[in-house]
């Protein structure tokens, strides 16, 4: 009996030492990839508590993230965690990635009580041993430096997880939180300033696609015109435009004669199709259409779309046809777009994750790329788009055994 008791005591000591070792290891820095962002787990993998994640009544915030960032600029970022008793020790982990592909965005430099480590090309900043501040009640914060990425990174997403621990040298009884923040690239103003604007949510080039931009002047006087072709991040993109009549520079301001017209054609270069948006500025009212051509599909055209705060468009997806949706942020502030998939009777089938778009940003996807897998299989109905923070222009395109554009109707 005494022997069994001794073994049992030894087992208890071994378990306690394991828990203590685990806690001490994490006090020096958590395992990497525990930010809660882009499919990652959180500190809850190893720490348990009396409440679920984000349910402990405390606060966890990422502060200092600018609404828009200047490429290459340095920003002081703070992570702040607060929790009432029994929390007496603190920890966190944060990563900064491009929202488009989850790759590293810029560079992190550690501050007091923090450290930077790398996994799969992504920097993770977290507390170090001193940064856990054992015995500190109420909460704490950590400050470090983020250097914004080079131009072209687009929307950047910060994800962090925090641990308000009770400092009892075990992984139980702790409170876990998550936080998220986004920032859009500061896009320089491009020199196309005219009182009238026409927005085309999609122009394509490469991968067999070419586009023609046809502009007409219905007035009896000449009109000054300029154009911007902008990528998903709202930055200028060169599609190698040629003009008819020849000699017209699409990168500057040109004059469209009374009752006159001009055609610009993309060069079709590139193995992959690249989509972008087109803004046409003019000193007077003009007409315009974009024609998409692909040898295996044919040609279809679409006119300009008015900037609106919401719209509805018919969509369909099956073995023979799919529907693509293109959006452009028509304003100078970031926007968020919500997409809902609806049946014929108007009932909502699915709600897509919010689409965050930088100023003058663009996105074009097939409908199955916006929603969870399987939701759009053999679907016919509508998509309703709602814009927060500004306006957007949109268009839809059916591709498969047909090639045609679909109307986008503004919501009342």
Q: What is the compact description of this entry?
A:
With 412 residues, this protein is mainly β.
Question: If you had to describe this structure to a student in words, what would you say it looks like?
Answer:
The chain is mainly beta. It folds into 3 domains: 2-185, Immunoglobulins (Immunoglobulin-like, Sandwich), CATH 2.60.40.10; 190-304, Sandwich (Hypothetical Protein Tm1070, Chain: A); 306-412, TM1070-like (Hypothetical Protein Tm1070, Chain: A, Sandwich), CATH 2.60.290.11. The chain is built from 2 helices and 29 strands. The chain has a 6-stranded mixed beta sheet, with no helix packed on it. Strands 20, 22, 23, 24, 26 and 29 form a 6-stranded antiparallel beta sheet that branches. It has a 5-stranded antiparallel beta sheet with strand order 14-16-12-18-19, with no helix packed on it. Strand 27 (392-400) and strand 28 (403-406) form a beta hairpin. The longest helix has 26 residues, at 2-27. The protein is elongated, with a radius of gyration of 27 Å. It starts with a helix and ends with a strand. Mean pLDDT is 90; it is low at 1-6 and 8-25.
Would you spell out the secondary-structure blueprint of this structure?
Elements (H helix, E strand, L loop, with lengths): L1 H26 L31 E5 L4 E2 L4 E9 L6 E10 L8 E3 L4 E6 L2 E6 L11 E9 L8 E10 L9 E11 L10 E10 L4 E7 L6 E8 L11 E3 L9 E3 L4 E5 L8 E9 L4 E8 L3 E6 L6 E8 L3 E9 L5 E8 L5 E4 L3 E3 L4 E5 H4 L8 E10 L3 E9 L2 E4 L2 E2 L2
Parallel strand pairs: 2-10
Antiparallel strand pairs: 1-3, 3-8, 4-7, 4-9, 5-8, 6-7, 9-10, 11-17, 12-16, 12-18, 13-15, 13-17, 14-16, 18-19, 20-26, 20-29, 21-25, 21-27, 22-23, 22-24, 22-26, 27-28
């Amino acid at each position: 009996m005494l022997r069994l008791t001794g073994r049992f005591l030894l087992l208890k000591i071994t378990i306690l030492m394991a828990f203590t070792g685990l806690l001490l290891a994490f006090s020096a820095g958590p395992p990497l990839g525990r930010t809660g962002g882009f499919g990652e787990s959180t500190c809850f993998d190893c720490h348990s508590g009396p409440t679920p994640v984000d349910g402990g009544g405390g606060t966890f915030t990422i502060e200092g993230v600018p609404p828009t960032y200047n490429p290459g600029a340095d920003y002081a970022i703070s992570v702040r965690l607060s929790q009432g008793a029994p929390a007496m020790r603190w920890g966190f982990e944060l990563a900064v990635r491009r929202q488009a592909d989850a790759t590293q965005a810029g560079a992190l430099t550690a501050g007091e009580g923090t450290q930077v480590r790398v996994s799969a090309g992504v920097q993770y900043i977290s507390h170090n041993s001193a940064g856990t501040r054992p015995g500190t009640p109420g909460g704490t914060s950590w400050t470090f430096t983020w250097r914004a990425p080079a131009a072209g990174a687009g929307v950047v997403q910060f994800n962090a997880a925090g641990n308000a621990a009770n400092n009892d040298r075990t992984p139980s009884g702790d409170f876990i939180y998550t936080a998220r923040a986004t920032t859009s690239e500061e896009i320089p103003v491009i020199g196309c300033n005219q009182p009238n604007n026409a927005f085309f949510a999609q122009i394509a080039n490469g991968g067999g696609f070419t586009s023609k931009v046809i502009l007409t002047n219905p007035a009896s006087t000449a009109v000054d015109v300029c154009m911007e072709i902008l990528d998903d991040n709202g930055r200028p993109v060169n599609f190698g435009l040629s003009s008819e009549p020849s000699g017209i520079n699409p990168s500057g301001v040109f004059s469209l004669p009374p009752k006159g017209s001009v055609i610009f054609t993309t060069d079709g270069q590139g193995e992959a199709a690249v989509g972008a948006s087109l803004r046409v500025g003019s000193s007077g009212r003009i007409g315009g259409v974009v024609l998409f051509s692909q040898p295996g599909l044919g040609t279809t055209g679409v006119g300009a779309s008015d900037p609106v705060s919401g719209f509805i468009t018919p969509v369909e997806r099956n073995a023979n046809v799919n529907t693509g949706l293109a959006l452009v942020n028509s304003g100078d502030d970031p926007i968020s777009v919500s997409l809902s998939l609806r049946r014929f009777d108007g009932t909502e089938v699915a709600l897509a994750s919010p689409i965050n778009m930088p100023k003058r940003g663009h996105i074009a996807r097939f409908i199955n790329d916006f929603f969870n897998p399987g939701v759009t299989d053999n679907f016919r109905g509508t998509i309703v788009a709602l814009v927060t923070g500004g306006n957007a222009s949109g268009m839809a395109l059916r591709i498969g055994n047909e090639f045609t554009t679909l109307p986008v109707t503004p919501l009342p």
